[in-house]
Amino acid sequence: MPTLDQPITGRGNSLRTVRSASSVSLSLAVKIYQMKLSAIVDSGCVFNCIDSKLVKRLNLTVKPFENDELGIARSVTGEIINCNGMCEVPLKFSGIICVTPMRVMENMTDNILLGTPFLIDNEVMMDFDDSYLFFKNFDLVVPLQRSIDETVARITRNCVLKAQAHNIVPVTISQNIQCQLCQKSCKDRQLIVQPFE
Q1: Residue 132 belongs to what domain range?
Q2: Does 104 lie in the same domain as 82?
Q3: Is residue 44 included in any domain, yes or no?
Q4: Residue range 23-45: average pLDDT?
Q5: Which residues contact 194 (CB under 8 A, 6 or more apart)?
Q6: pLDDT digits (tens, 9 = 90+) for 62-104
Q7: 172 and 96 within one domain
Q8: SS3 for 49?
Q9: Beta pairing class for 132-135 and 7-8
Q10: 49 touches 72 (CB < 8 A)
Q11: 129 lies in a domain?
């Protein structure tokens, strides 16, 4: 496994990543109109976000921001991401429809991210151990999908991992993966790597 500030030498080197149990992603199975999606639940994110390509595909109305400062956000890797505006998204799950205001973001890794505004607005209690959400507003318990992925990838160019929480590394995945957004099979991706000291 690469370490901090150490070059990953040569194209084509193998990189095996395994998410630890502490960084397991939890997602909520939702439908927007007739499209089935997974929405990542992230209690550390201060926004609800949806990818701009998905918004376009669903033909959702985007309202521009009144304040220019709201048009950008910073990702977990420190990268600046453009926000195209706000959108009301009708999320359907467990027999209810929850209209959720979301920031429309460009080039998201996941299609939908449900942050603290979603959890607060719906008075949600989250149980990480048993992987469920309790919606106090609806007196409803909804199971979450737990994702612990192991991915084998090939690095597409020389890289040096910086001393930060995450690094984005261009890779080629060893198998075709069906992209949920574009419905195409893709092999060229970017991988987020958490370096070890």
Answers
A1: 25-146
A2: yes
A3: yes
A4: 89
A5: 23, 165, 166, 167
A6: 999 887 666 777 776 677 888 889 999 999 999 999 999 999 9
A7: no
A8: strand
A9: unpaired
A10: no
A11: yes
